[in-house]
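User: I'll paste a sequence; please echo it back and then give the predicted structure.

Assistant: Echoing your sequence first, then the prediction.
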Amino acid sequence: MILNVAAYHFTAVDNPQALAEEARARAVAAGLLGTVLVAGEGINLFLAGAGKAVRTWVDWLRAEPRFAGLVVKESYSRAQPFQRLKVKVKPELISFRRADASPLQGRAPTVAPADLARWIGQGCDDKGRRLVLLDTRNREEVGHGSFVGALTLPIDNFTELPAALVPHRDELADATVVSFCTGGIRCEKAALHLQADGMDNLLQLDGGILGYFEQVGGFGYDGRCFVFDGRVALDPALEPLVDGDEAMATG
């Protein structure tokens, strides 16, 4: 079996190029494939390979104090879902282009998966406010599945999210809004920006959809979660939509 890991961590990186080069060298030596993005604001990664090799690479990264808190989401596949290894230095880990959305300055409030599942079950938060789930992903991703009744937006790129949400802002004013995405990285930025823009009733789902699947399962969720590799999407049990030779051909 192939171990697949997804993780991100926001922290100041003084020399992204040096970190990227070492990350690449260690991944090549371990026979890992996937994508590693490095920026001055941290690291974002999707890697797959033999279990021991993947965990050794993650242990190397966590050994640096700035990455000690790295949270990794694991899943398995029969086939390697990536065709190559890509390690890049980027201006942002996820392009958003908003000066008020830097997670290096702190996080927006979060809700844990178990708490969200309880809120979904009771139809409101613990204070009795109505619950609205806000999908921050693009329309292709949403097409594979989302939380039942979630507010989805007709966007193709993450940068379009703030403008697409404007027509809905007034109707959300009396609700507790929980934003979510695949693994949490987009909400780290979107929630900060929207809060700075006056949306103080917004929380982010800690760990994203994949963290929810891992801790809670599929309660309140309809379909699968799109992932950015040859597996295409994962169901709430973290089983891939595509696996085997077909995944190798498309990853």
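The first strand starts at residue 2 and ends at 10. Residues 61 and 67 are 6 Å apart (CA to CA).
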